C-alpha cells in the first residue's frame, strides 16, 4: 500500500484525451462514467478532488466533421470551443449521478504567470472545493495562442497541484505507467518507482499514444512529475482503468517519490508558473556568490538588462554566457537598473526572492525532458519572436 496516497486529503487527478475520446467517435461516455465513479467515491470518503481533464479538442472533432486532430491552431481552437462544452456537459451529467456538482475552470498561461491572477485562481478553486463541488480544469484552448499556451495538460496539472497545495497528483493515461523505452517495442519494462532523476537515466521516450488524440506523450508526464515531486507532491502515473487502484493506494503504475519540500508560495510560483518580464545578466562572481547562498545580488554585478519590468516583476538571471541561472523578483525597475548596473551596491534581487536552477538534478534528466524544461521557461515577452542569442545559448547542448 502507498501511504502517501492513503493520507492525501486533497488530490489533483489529470486524465488525458486518449482515455476519454477517440478521434472518430468523440467522447466515450462509458469511460467518462467509469472515471467519475472512482472520483465520486474518493469525494464521498472526504478527499477533495480537482480534475484536470483534457479532451476538449478531441471531443470537438467529430461534431465538426473532422476525422483527425488538425495541425493548425485555428481549427484546434474551433474544435476546443465546441468540444469543451460537450466535455463539461458530460462530466456534469456523470457527477450528478452521485449527487455531485462540477465547476468548469479554464486557465490561460497568463492566469498562472501573473501573481495576482495566480492568487485569484487559488481563491476561486479553494472556494469551489469548500462548497463541495468538483472543479474540472482545462486550458482555455479557444483563446490560447501558440506562444502563450501551456500546451499540455500534464504540466498544467502539476501547476494546479502546486496552486491548490495538493497532497497528491495522479496522472491517468492510456498506458499503465512509465516504461524504460517506448512500450510499443518488445522488452520495454515498467518502472514501478522513481525516487529521483537518477532513476530516469537511460529512459527513452516514443511519441504520443495510439488513439491519435494525445499530445505530449511521456515526456510531458515525466516533466510534470518532476515539477510536482520537487515541491513535495508524490505522483502516481497509471492507466485510466486503474484509477480505482491508484486512489485506493494499491501498487499500480509508476510511483514518483517526492524529491524536495514545498517551499514558500511565492518561490514555487516564481520557479514554475511566473512569466518573466526581463533578463538580467550577471558577472561570474555574482553567479558564484548566489550558488554559495550569498545575497542579495548587487547592481554592480549586473552586466546587461533586457525587457520592460518594474519592481516586483519576475526576471530571469543568466550568466556571462547567457545560460539560465535562476529567476528572481526584481527589486528595481529595468530602466533604473540599466542606469546603475555595474556601479552600485543597491540590491537587484533579495535572497528571499530568488530561485536557482537545480543544475545538478537537471543534468540527470533524460535529454528530451531537459530540453523541454528549458524551452518552457522562455520569457513571455520574447514569445513569438525568433530566439535571442540568450535563448539559443540556454538550450542544453546535448540530446
Ligand atoms: N517510455 C515510455 N513509457 C510509457 N509510455 C510511453 C513512453 N514513450 C512513449 N510513450 C507513449 O506515451 C503515450 C501516452 O501519452 P499521450 O498519448 O500524450 O497520452 P495522454 O492523452 O494520456 O496524455 C503512451 O500511449 C505511449 O505510447
Ligand atoms: N487542452 C487540450 C489537451 C492538451 C493535452 O495535454 O492533451 P493530453 O496529452 O491528451 O493530456 C484539450 O482539452 O484538448
How would you describe what is shown here?
With 399 residues, the chain is of the alpha/beta class. The protein has two domains: 3-265, 3-Layer(aba) Sandwich (Carbamate kinase); 275-394, PUA domain (Archaeosine Trna-guanine Transglycosylase, Chain: A, domain 4), CATH 2.30.130.10. The chain has helices at residues 3-6, 29-44, 56-61, 73-96, 109-113, 115-130, 153-163, 217-230, 243-247, 265-273, 284-291, 334-340, 359-364, 367-376, 389-394; strands at 10-15, 21-22, 26-27, 48-53, 102-107, 134-139, 168-173, 193-194, 235-239, 254-256, 278-282, 297-298, 302-307, 314-318, 324-330, 347-356. The strands form three sheets. An eight-stranded mixed β-sheet has the order 5-6-4-1-7-9-10-8, with helices on both faces. A six-stranded mixed β-sheet has the order 12-16-15-14-11-13. The longest helix has 24 residues, at 73-96. The protein starts with a helix and ends in a 5-residue tail after the last helix. The model is unreliable at 373-399 (pLDDT under 50). The ligand N[C@@H](CCC(=O)OP(=O)(O)O)C(=O)O binds next to helix 3 and strand 6. The ligand N[C@@H](CCC(=O)OP(=O)(O)O)C(=O)O binds at residues 16-18, 54-58, 80, 138-139, 141, 152-153, 214-216. It is found in: Cytoplasm. It catalyses: L-glutamate + ATP = L-glutamyl 5-phosphate + ADP. Belongs to the glutamate 5-kinase family.
Amino acid at each position: 500500500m502507498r501511504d502517501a496516497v492513503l493520507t492525501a486529503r486533497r488530490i489533483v487527478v489529470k486524465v488525458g484525451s486518449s482515455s476519454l475520446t477517440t478521434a472518430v467517435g468523440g467522447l466515450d461516455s462509458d469511460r467518462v462514467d467509469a472515471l467519475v465513479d472512482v472520483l465520486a467515491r474518493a469525494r464521498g470518503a472526504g478527499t477533495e478532488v480537482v480534475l484536470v481533464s483534457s479532451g476538449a479538442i478531441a471531443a470537438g472533432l467529430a461534431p465538426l466533421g473532422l476525422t483527425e486532430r488538425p495541425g493548425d491552431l485555428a481549427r484546434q481552437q474551433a474544435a476546443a470551443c465546441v468540444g469543451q462544452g460537450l466535455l463539461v456537459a458530460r462530466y456534469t451529467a456523470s457527477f450528478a449521478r452521485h449527487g455531485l456538482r462540477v465547476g468548469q475552470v479554464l486557465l490561460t498561461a497568463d492566469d498562472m504567470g501573473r501573481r495576482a491572477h495566480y492568487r485569484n485562481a487559488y481563491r476561486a478553486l479553494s472556494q469551489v472545493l469548500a462548497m463541495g463541488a468538483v472543479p474540472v480544469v482545462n486550458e482555455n484552448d479557444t483563446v490560447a495562442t501558440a506562444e502563450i499556451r501551456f500546451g499540455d495538460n500534464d504540466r498544467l496539472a502539476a501547476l494546479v497541484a502546486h496552486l491548490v497545495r495538493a497532497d497528491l497528483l495522479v496522472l491517468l493515461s492510456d498506458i499503465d505507467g512509465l516504461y524504460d523505452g517506448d512500450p510499443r517495442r518488445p522488452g520495454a519494462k515498467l518502472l514501478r518507482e522513481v525516487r529521483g532523476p537518477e532513476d530516469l537515466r537511460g529512459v527513452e521516450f516514443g511519441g504520443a499514444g495510439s488513439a491519435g488524440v494525445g499530445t505530449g506523450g511521456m515526456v510531458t508526464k515525466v516533466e510534470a512529475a518532476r515539477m510536482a515531486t520537487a515541491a513535495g507532491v508524490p505522483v502516481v502515473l497509471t492507466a485510466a482503468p486503474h484509477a480505482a487502484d491508484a486512489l485506493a493506494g494499491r501498487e499500480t503504475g509508476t510511483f514518483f517519490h517526492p524529491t524536495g519540500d514545498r517551499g514558500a508560495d511565492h518561490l514555487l510560483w516564481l520557479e514554475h508558473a511566473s512569466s518573466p518580464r526581463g533578463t538580467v545578466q550577471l558577472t561570474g562572481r555574482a553567479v558564484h556568490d548566489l550558488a554559495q547562498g550569498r545575497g542579495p545580488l548587487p547592481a554592480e554585478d549586473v552586466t546587461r538588462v533586457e525587457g520592460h519590468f518594474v519592481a516586483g516583476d519576475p526576471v530571469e538571471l543568466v550568466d556571462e554566457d547567457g545560460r539560465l541561472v535562476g529567476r528572481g523578483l526584481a527589486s528595481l525597475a529595468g530602466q533604473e537598473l540599466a542606469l546603475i548596473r555595474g556601479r552600485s551596491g543597491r540590491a537587484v534581487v533579495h535572497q528571499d526572492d530568488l530561485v536557482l536552477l537545480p543544475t545538478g538534478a537537471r543534468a540527470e534528466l533524460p535529454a528530451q525532458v531537459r530540453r523541454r524544461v528549458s524551452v518552457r521557461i522562455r520569457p513571455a515577452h520574447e514569445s513569438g519572436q525568433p530566439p535571442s542569442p540568450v535563448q539559443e545559448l540556454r538550450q542544453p547542448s546535448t540530446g
